[in-house]
Amino acid sequence: MLVSSLLLWIASGAIAVSFMLWMLSRKLMSTGVAENRVRAHGHQNGVKALTQVYKKLLRDVYRWSMRVPVLKKKTASLRQQLAPLYSYDEWLLRERTASILLGSGIAILIALSIFVSFDQNLLSWIMLIVVLSVAESLYRDVMITRAEVKLLHLSSMLIGHMRHAYHRYKMVDAALEDTIERAHPMLVPHLQRIAKLISDPDSDSAMAAYEDAAPNRYYKMLGGLSKLVAEYGDPKGTDGSFYLKGLAMIVSEMQTELVMRARLDYLLGGLKAIAIIPILFTDPLEKWATTYFPSMELFYHSKLGWCLQLTVFCSVLMCHRILQQLHWRSAMAEEQSQRTGWIRRVLEQRIIQRLLDVWVHSRQIESLKRAQRLLHEANESMTLRHYYGRRFLHAITTSGICFVLIVSLHLGSTQWIWNQLNTKTLEAGLSMELTKQWIQSSNPETGNHGLQLALKAAILKEHPDWSYQRIEQSTKSLVPLAIYDREMKVSWWEVLLPFAAGWGAYYAFVMILRIRIRIRHLDMRTEISQMQSLCMLLRAFERMTAESMMEWMSRCTTMFRRPLQVCLLNWESGSDHALQQLRIHAPYPDFVRLVDKLELAHNHIPLNEAFDDAVQDWFYEQDMLKQHYETSIEAKAGWGRWLGFAPMYALIFLYLVVPLVWMSAEQMRSSFEQIRSL
Known about the structure:
This protein has helices at residues 2-29, 31-41, 44-65, 69-86, 90-116, 122-169, 172-182, 188-199, 203-213, 217-232, 242-268, 271-292, 296-300, 303-326, 331-337, 341-347, 350-362, 365-377, 384-428, 432-441, 447-462, 468-486, 492-538, 546-556, 561-569, 575-585, 589-603, 607-610, 614-677; strands at residues 236-237, 240-241. By secondary structure, it is mainly α. Among the domains are: 1-117, no CATH class; 353-512, no CATH class. Strands 1-2 form a two-stranded antiparallel ribbon. α23 (492-538) packs across α24 (546-556) and α23 runs antiparallel to α29 (614-677). The longest helix has 64 residues, at 614-677. The radius of gyration is 33 Å and the shape is elongated. Keywords: Membrane, Transmembrane, Transmembrane helix. The chain crosses the membrane at residues 6-24, 98-116, 122-139, 264-281, 301-323, 392-411, 495-515, 642-662.
């Protein structure tokens, strides 16, 4: 336990250092405000020196992580997640990336210190992998979510000030300049990009460049609306300025997302941590059970016991991943979660492509249609070849892992049994040759009582001077181990288990897509309402067309972005066919009705007439949206509570109740054998 104590001290020091680094990082986000406060208190030089040292440390960590092959990919992925928030400043982006890497390293160090305190075996290494994966993802999600929420909160208040500035100046650029002067340092670069977008004469290229750099869809809407009003003017309706309506709509959507995030964090907060707690209690629970019920040690070190412990680990990992899907996920996170480069590289091999083509062509048409419809509803862009390829790859990988685990568990259980036999034999004062000879010569059909009689006879022949009590004590400790060793044969279910696991993994990918569709349906209602609000706003512009409105819809949506982008790419080759494909790729009823209105506006009537009922629909959608929010949050909270506590239930049932039942059954079998031998 010396290494464990050392790591615990290192982890404690790392926590203290991380707290100091976190305090300094708060200075990093608002350097100008911090310098003014420090100047007022007369401590500017000291804090600036600490801040510079902290920045230099973070930059060195970032530079070092980009050179290490293992960390390079993780650093690049983390940088890509933070780029929309901090892309205006390369140094700040590197510093924020390095700070999250440092925090993840500290979380991993704490997990390692906990791991060393346990007995190391195959399952403990699996436990280490699960804990490290969960700890790193928890810390990363918390830090990125905190930055996104802070940006939303500050932006909602800032756009409210922008409304007052537009009331004063009646000009978009003047209102934007006045807002920049009063903005938080975190928001100034984003607003400066909008100002540059407005002044750029090349509207299309400037808008495309801004969309790639905008932190979220609200800034895309704000930039596009400001550019539209600056070029074509603010259309005045009977109820006021449409630009002010647009700003109010953006603020309302931001506040709605903030409320949704706050309620989801309140209801789902801590559930991901609760889901991984059973991993930490497996070893203490096993030690408690073996202390008070010594016969249960055989169960925990058997193949069945290891399989049950592995089931607990798998349930923890699966519940944690599903809980991540239940939390608020941006479009950026959703796109990154679907990127699996190594799978794509494997499936792009020429031989594998030919085999997959043969398999796809051999399938029935109805099966292919169902698979294509499933991919469309899940918003997956993969082809049918990749769809079936991933299913086969998951099945083969799962079967291989299951086969390796079964062999490892079998060898580990056999080794543990013989180690225990050797230890018990030496404690009893016997020779290992006598024990091996007794095990090999004994008949397994004689049962527990017959093995005891055979061992007593062998011991009495080898040591005739031993007392009856000593012989009885020796046989009681060796017979259960001998019975278990004779039963350590490869069973028929162990042969079938890899094939069953592969079959389950083949269909598990379909179940994952269906779960994703179910979760996405909870959020589609929100985006439909947002797009209808956008249509109500944009229909007032005379130069607005159905194609332009679809471009706006693709900017403000997450769930329907890919189908809308595909439709826009196919628009020039035929608008009717593109809209028909859009209905197929996104078969959500309310969205299909919105597409029908766009088709009318493009082919038959003006856009303003096609959406003449937009105001009435908007009021209806607001009422439905409130009800939908409540239903969505309650559904996610219910799923979250079930998934958060499911690993704990699995631990109690599989790791405590099942062993107790097994121990009772073994004692009953031993009692029946003794009664039968009388």
